[in-house]
């Protein structure tokens, strides 16, 4: 370390320094036993360092600190100590003020620090700095052992960082490269130097040198391992993985996912950034990677991010991926999910097919899932913009159907051995304080309630669940929210068919429809759907419907014409009663009656049954009154006429009977029109109201009928009669009419 004399052989125990500071002068040869020295206690670092060095000399190897896992020979270890001590002496001799740096002189006794030179040293040998005083040498050896005696390379690098920074002030070139520190130093010291100096390098360089590992090292010249890693890496980083690494506030999700995949290829490799993107089939460039690396570095968790990236890259190098992403990126996806298949899926799972944009969104989702690439720029902008809403209307049934589509697509391309998706285990990230969020900590039941029950957007749900919208969308794709089949008033689109499919397997529908001959409407009422849904389900199951009609018409239930003739014409049954037996509507039955050549009856309202059996009831009513018993108020009108006959005018009769004058007049006019003759002569100023001869006969018949048979009370009170709107009297009425 110091210039030595070329004259004379060094003698142990004697001073080997020259007498005048030149290598041409003889050695001093002073007895070192008589030289003054500093006393230290046994527990002093100086004494412990002497014992450590003596042990290395005796055993011939160094197995302490960084040499524990990989012991080195004593000669190599002493070369490392000499290299570090030389750098320490370089700093203290040329920048004496740096000796006050507590990090640089850590664990060096104060007695040695105070005895070190305090002025810049001039020497004829600047490349071999040194100090003649033993305290400087002891301090340099202690500083070197303070670094080498650390168990981990990262910790040794942190201890060495202050020395490297101090050396950079004196000789920047000596601080950046370790090759000038000695040709015989160990690779372990080079790793420590990398761990100490890489914090000054760009983030990409730190990843290339694997700065966070236990032994950082220079990346190999060949890029073969990185190229093999590219076949195991998707263009878009695995969603469950990038959400943990990327900062939660990062708005460049597509760019960040591609950048993270490319970053995996440069870990421990000399591969250029552009080449990494090219291998992954990405159109990004090196500037995108640099920008995303700055985002990660400024997140405040850069060391954890480096550790995560390194762990994943090591896992890919040591594990075979079940998916060859290079092959996936070059498949032909033009025939992925044709329109016919999409509409069939919608009918099956019970969702609306929507317009062409919705089918495009699902194709884009499938493409991204299978190829692990971003949606191509040739995709319409509306499809790319609305793809973000896909997780909201995604359902478990749709997820199952899309899995079948994806599986069939891979099978057609002879990839039956590959799963649909894959990603490294998330346990690789355990124990790391990463800037992203962990989506697996979100309560799925609460998330489904917010999306389906409260119809919240992913952004609103993310705010309530304290996560990011990207994590919400990832979870909804992975675990779709179940949807209700019915709204408050009707089935959702195509949901009725799905409900019928679940409630009626093929065997059950065959038994009900074919064996038991039940009508479609009855089967539909049993499970709460329409007959058309059951017909569609039967067609899907391949069950032929009964009595198909001509093309263009729905298949209907067969009704025997003779049975219809007997029941409707002979027994006078209503259309509603007859329609209930085959399970069809009354309007459909009336159409069948007309098709059979039979005349339909008029509608009768609530008294329809009574009208159908009118002939039977009229047998007990006097024949002169039968024509007046039309409608539901015929009996009431006859009773009003009979009650008004004794009065002198209709006005007095209405007042006495407690009815409206106009109502009474309308009722009598209605009876006169039904019977075909006048019943009363209206009152005049000089004569009272009188019954005509037909009126007296009708009144007598009514009174006799009321007394001879217990005639039921009127169907409705007189006060409920309708206003006067009855038919007009025949033209045979008297030409002169007066008011009563």
Key descriptive features of the protein:
single chain, 740 residues, disordered C terminus, mainly alpha, 7 domains, rod-shaped
Distance between the ends: 150 Å
Give the spatial strand order of the biggest sheet.
1-2
Q: What is the C-alpha radius of gyration, as a whole number of Å?
A: 52 Å
Low-confidence stretches: 1-5, 122-132, 711-740
Helix segment tally: 37
Number of distinct beta strands:
4
Sheet having the most strands:
2 strands, antiparallel
User: Which structural class fits the helix and strand makeup?
Assistant: mainly alpha
Overall shape: it is rod-shaped
Beta-strand share of residues: under 5%
Number of domains: 7
The overall average pLDDT, rounded, is 80
The portion of residues assigned to helices is: 40-55%
Task: Describe how the helices and strands are arranged.
Layout: H1 45-59, E1 61-62, E2 72-73, H2 74-94, H3 110-114, H4 134-148, H5 153-170, H6 172-176, H7 187-197, H8 203-208, H9 224-231, H10 239-245, H11 253-266, H12 273-279, H13 286-297, H14 302-318, H15 325-328, H16 339-349, H17 356-371, H18 381-386, H19 390-393, H20 396-412, H21 444-453, H22 458-465, H23 469-478, H24 495-503, H25 506-515, H26 520-527, H27 531-541, H28 561-570, H29 575-580, H30 586-595, H31 608-612, H32 614-618, H33 623-626, H34 634-644, H35 650-657, H36 661-675, E3 680-681, E4 690-691, H37 693-708
Structural overview:
The longest helix is centred in the first third of the chain and has 21 residues, at 74-94. The relative contact order is 0.04. Helix 2 (74-94) packs across helix 4 (134-148), helix 2 (74-94) runs parallel beside helix 5 and helix 24 crosses helix 27 (531-541). The termini are far apart. By secondary structure, this protein is mainly alpha-helical. The chain has 37 helices and four strands. It is rod-shaped. Strand 3 and strand 4 form a beta hairpin. The chain has seven domains: 45-200, no CATH class; 224-323; 339-412, no CATH class; 437-478, no CATH class; 484-556, no CATH class; 561-601; 624-720, Arc Repressor Mutant, subunit A (Orthogonal Bundle), CATH 1.10.10.10. Strands 1-2 form a two-stranded antiparallel ribbon.
């Amino acid at each position: 370390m110091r210039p030595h004399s070329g004259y004379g052989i060094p003698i142990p125990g004697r001073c080997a320094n020259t007498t005048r500071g030149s290598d041409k002068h003889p050695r001093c040869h002073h007895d070192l036993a008589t030289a003054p020295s500093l006393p230290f206690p046994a527990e002093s670092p100086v004494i412990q360092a002497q014992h450590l060095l003596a042990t290395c000399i005796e055993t011939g190897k160094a197995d302490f600190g960084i040499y524990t896992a990989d012991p080195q020979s004593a000669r190599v270890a002493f070369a490392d100590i000499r290299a570090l001590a030389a750098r320490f002496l370089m700093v203290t001799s040329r920048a004496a003020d740096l000796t006050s740096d507590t990090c640089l002189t850590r664990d060096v006794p104060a007695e040695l620090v105070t005895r070190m030179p305090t002025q810049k040293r001039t020497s004829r040998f600047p490349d071999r700095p040194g100090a003649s005083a033993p305290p400087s040498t002891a301090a340099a050896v202690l500083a070197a052992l303070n670094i080498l005696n650390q168990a981990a390379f990262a910790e040794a690098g942190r201890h060495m960082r202050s020395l490297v920074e101090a050396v950079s002030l004196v000789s920047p070139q000596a601080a950046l490269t370790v090759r000038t520190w000695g040709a015989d130093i160990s690779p372990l010291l080079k790793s420590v130097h990398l761990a100490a100096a890489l914090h000054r390098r760009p983030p990409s360089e730190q990843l290339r040198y694997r700065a966070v590992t236990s032994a950082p090292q220079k990346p190999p010249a060949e890029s073969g391992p990185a190229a093999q890693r590219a076949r195991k890496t998707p263009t878009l980083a695995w969603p469950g993985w990038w959400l943990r690494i990327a900062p939660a506030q990062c708005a460049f999700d597509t760019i960040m996912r591609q950048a993270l995949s490319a970053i995996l290829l440069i870990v421990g490799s000399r591969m250029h950034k552009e080449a990494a993107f090219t291998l992954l089939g990405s159109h990004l460039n090196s500037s995108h990677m640099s920008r995303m690396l700055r985002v990660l570095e400024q997140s405040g968790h850069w060391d954890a991010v480096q550790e995560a990236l390194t762990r994943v890259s090591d896992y890919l190098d040591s594990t075979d991926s079940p998916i060859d992403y290079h092959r996936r990126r070059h498949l032909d996806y033009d025939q992925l999910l044709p329109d016919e298949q999409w509409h069939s899926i919608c009918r099956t799972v019970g969702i609306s097919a929507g317009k062409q944009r919705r089918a495009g969104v699902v194709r884009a989702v499938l493409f991204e899932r299978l190829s692990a690439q971003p949606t191509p720029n040739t995709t319409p902008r509306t499809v790319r913009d609305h793809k973000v809403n896909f997780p909201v209307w995604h359902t478990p049934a749709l997820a199952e159907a899309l899995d079948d589509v994806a599986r069939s697509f891979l099978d057609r391309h002879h990839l039956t051995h590959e799963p649909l998706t894959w990603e490294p285990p998330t346990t690789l990230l355990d124990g790391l304080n990463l800037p992203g969020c962990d989506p697996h900590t979100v309560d799925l039941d609460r998330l489904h309630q917010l999306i389906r029950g409260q119809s919240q957007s992913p952004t609103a749900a993310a705010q309530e669940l304290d996560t990011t919208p990207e994590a919400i969308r990832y979870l909804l794709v992975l675990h779709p929210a179940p949807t209700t089949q019915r709204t408050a008033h009707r089935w959702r689109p195509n949901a009725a068919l799905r409900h019928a499919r679940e409630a009626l397997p093929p065997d059950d529908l065959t038994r009900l429809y074919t064996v038991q001959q039940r009508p479609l409407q009855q089967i539909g009422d049993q499970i709460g759907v329409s007959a058309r849904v059951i017909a569609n389900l039967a067609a899907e199951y391949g069950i032929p419907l009964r009595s198909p009609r001509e093309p263009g018409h729905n298949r209907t239930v067969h009704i025997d014409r003779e049975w219809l003739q007997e029941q409707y014409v002979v027994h006078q049954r209503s259309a509603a009663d007859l329609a209930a037996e085959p399970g069809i509507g009354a309007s459909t039955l009336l159409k069948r009656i007309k098709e059979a050549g039979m005349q339909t009856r008029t509608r009768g309202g609530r008294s329809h049954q009574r009208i159908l059996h009118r002939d039977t009831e009229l047998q007990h009513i006097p024949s002169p009154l039968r024509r007046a018993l039309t409608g539901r108020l015929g009996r009431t009108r006859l009773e009003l006429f009979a009650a008004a006959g004794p009065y002198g005018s209709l006005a007095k009769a209405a007042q006495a009977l407690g009815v409206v004058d106009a109502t009474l007049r309308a009722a009598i006019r209605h009876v006169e029109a039904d019977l075909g003759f006048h019943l009363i002569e209206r009152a005049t100023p000089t004569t009272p109201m009188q019954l005509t001869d037909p009126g007296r006969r009708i009144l007598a018949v009514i009174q006799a009928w009321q007394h001879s048979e217990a005639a039921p009370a009127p169907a409705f009170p007189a006060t409920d009669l309708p206003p006067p709107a009855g038919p007009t009297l025949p033209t045979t009425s008297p030409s002169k009419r007066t008011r009563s």
